Amino acid sequence: MALVGLVRVSTSKQETRRQHADLDPICVKVFEEKVSGKLKVSDRPALKAALDYMRPGDMLTVQEADRLGRNLLEGLIVLNDLFERGVAVKILDGIAAGEHTERSLILDLALALAEDRRRDIVRKTKSGLESAARAGRKGGRPRVVDADKRRAILARRAEGQSLRQIARGVGVSLAVVHGEIKAAENNPEPQ
């Protein structure tokens, strides 16, 4: 029996160190993915690779049940597929912590709670953005361009420099340069 790890976070900006710290020492191989847990198995390449790698008697190991998925139906599909193939699941933390060789109420409940938490996060994020908008604030990342950089971008563009040249010269991304030029075209007054 081999322990095979699955590390999952939803976005490329999120860290996987904590999950790797728990799984790397005990697993023969750890697969990592940075995709939403609400996706279908067919849209999760690392999960597919882990499933292909495992043999009957192996154990898919995750830090918490929500690493399997944050969509109850997809999580249950993963579990059913594993159990039918003779592969067990080991969950290190949370209400479903332990080794599972078949579906159980606690395992189903852990997946349902994961989906509910995801729904709650989406609802709270949307509510917070709406509240900020009503207060006149816009959500999102802070601006990286101050008035001096904006002037430099627009002056370099007026000189005929390409967007890439401007980005390198000013020290910002191509997307930032494009956005500033577009904003200046739509609103010729200084922002």
Describe what you observe in this structure.
The protein is α/β, with parallel strands linked by helices. It has helices at 17-23, 45-53, 72-84, 105-134, 147-158, 163-170, 174-186; strands spanning 3-9, 29-34, 59-62, 88-91, 98-100. It has a five-stranded mixed sheet with strand order 2-1-3-4-5, sandwiched between helices. The longest helix has 30 residues, at 105-134. The chain is elongated, with a radius of gyration of 23 Å. The chain starts with a strand and ends in a 5-residue tail after the last helix. The model has no long low-confidence stretch (mean pLDDT 87).
Instruction: Provide the spatial order of strands within the biggest beta sheet.
Output: 2-1-3-4-5
Total strands: the figure is 5
Termini separation: 63 Å
Shape assignment: elongated
| Beta-strand percent range | 5-15%
**Estimated radius of gyration:** 23 Å
Main beta sheet, described? 5 strands, mixed
Task: Supply the helix-strand structural class.
Answer: alpha/beta
Q: Give the SSE string.
A: EHEHEHEEHHHH
| H/I helix tally | 7
Mean pLDDT across residues? 87
In the predicted model, the low-confidence regions spanning at least 5 consecutive residues are none
The helix fraction, in percent, is 40-55%
Quick tags:
single chain; 191 residues; alpha/beta; five-stranded mixed sheet; 48% helix; 13% strand; elongated
